[in-house]
């Protein structure tokens, strides 16, 4: 799909990036009648947590650590919604795909899932390419030859660190998360 981008003139690519930026800005303008995050707020009155705690308590725990957020199904959903507003949900989608991949027991399914994940997220110019360095990309490519449940560990760890250091702090400061904590 994205292989065709290489043949486009650089001005087209620059224009596409500019359009993406402008759309992102427009999505955040409250005067347009819709603010991102408000339509997808979590309902905080119900008991959602698998541990039996009130979900409002769970929302407050998300700020304690990135791990707390990732352990919560509703936390992952809220974080994913936030990442969509920043056009960076591929990082979380990749991390979740890797978590699911690790649960695969069949060797044949392991190999086909590994190739699918690599083609969608890791290879250069992948449709939903994650931001990892060339060295990690190459290590991951080599790991595919003998696909094990650990073949994405390094790429997954780098993506997780990027989310934890970059996106997670912005999520905690976002209007949607602040609204959720006020409800809690």
UniProtKB/TrEMBL annotation:
Principal subcellular localization:
membrane
Q: Would the keyword Membrane be found if you checked this record's keyword annotation? A: yes
InterPro entries in alphabetical order = RGS, RGS_sf, RGS_subdom1/3, RGS_subdomain_2
**Cellular component terms (Gene Ontology):** membrane
Q: Which GO terms describe its biological process?
A: negative regulation of signal transduction
| Localization of this protein | Membrane
- Protein known as: Regulator of G-protein signaling 16
- State the species of origin: Gavia stellata
